[in-house]
Specification:
Elements: H1 10-18, H2 22-43, H3 47-63, H4 71-99, H5 118-126, H6 130-141, H7 146-153, H8 157-175
C-alpha cells in the first residue's frame, strides 16, 4: 500500500465526520481527493466514471459509523472502501462477463517495458474490458492474492487466471 503523509489534525476531522459535520467531510474530501482518485482512475474507463466511483466511496466513508480512530488505519480503510466502491460499480457487468464460458490457461506475470510511461500504462489498462481491468488492477497494482480476488468478485481460481492471462496478452498487444 502507498504510504501517505498524515496531517496532524486528521484525528479531529475524523471525530467531526463521525458526528456528521459537513465541513469536516468537505475538508477530508479536499485533502484526500487525489489519493482516492489515484485508486479509482486505474479501474475506470474515463475520468467521469472514476469521479462517480470515488464519490460513491466517499459517501460510504462518511456514512460509515466506524470511521477509523487511528490515522494509519484511515488510509487502509479509505483504500478498501474505494476498491469496494469500484467492485460495486462494475458488479453487474462483471457478473455478465463471468457467466460466459472461459477456458483455463496459465498466467504469467505482466512485465511492461521499464521505459513505458505510467500514463501510457494507465491508458492501456483503461482500454481493457471491465472484468480484465478490475482483476488486473487488484492483482498487479494493488497486490491482492488470487484467493482474495476470487472472494471479492465471487469467481473461481481458473476463471481468474484466464481473465488475468487475457488481460496480460491484451496489454502486451496494446503497448507493443
Amino acid at each position: 500500500m502507498i504510504k501517505v503523509l498524515v496531517d496532524g489534525d486528521l484525528q479531529e476531522l475524523l471525530t467531526s465526520c463521525k458526528a456528521g459535520d459537513r465541513n469536516a467531510q468537505r475538508e477530508i474530501y479536499k485533502r484526500y481527493y487525489s489519493y482516492a482518485m489515484g485508486i479509482c482512475i486505474r479501474y475506470a474507463t474515463n475520468r467521469t466514471e472514476s469521479l462517480e466511483i470515488m464519490n460513491n466511496g466517499f459517501y460510504t466513508l462518511f456514512s460509515n459509523s466506524k470511521l477509523s480512530k487511528q490515522n494509519e488505519a484511515f488510509f487502509e480503510n479509505l483504500q478498501k472502501i474505494m476498491i469496494h466502491s469500484i467492485i460495486t460499480y462494475y458488479k453487474d457487468e462483471v457478473a455478465c462477463t463471468i457467466k460466459k464460458s472461459m477456458r483455463y490457461k496459465a498466467f504469467n506475470d505482466f512485465a511492461p517495458d521499464r521505459d513505458l510511461a505510467s500514463h501510457q500504462l494507465l491508458s492501456a489498462v483503461q482500454k481493457l474490458p471491465v472484468i480484465e481491468r478490475l482483476t488486473f488492477n487488484l492483482y498487479a497494482i494493488d497486490g491482492y492474492t488470487n484467493a482474495e480476488i476470487c472472494k471479492m468478485i465471487n469467481i473461481t481460481t481458473p476463471s481468474l487466471e484466464k481473465i488475468l492471462f487475457t488481460a496480460r496478452n491484451t496489454l502486451r498487444n496494446i503497448v507493443i
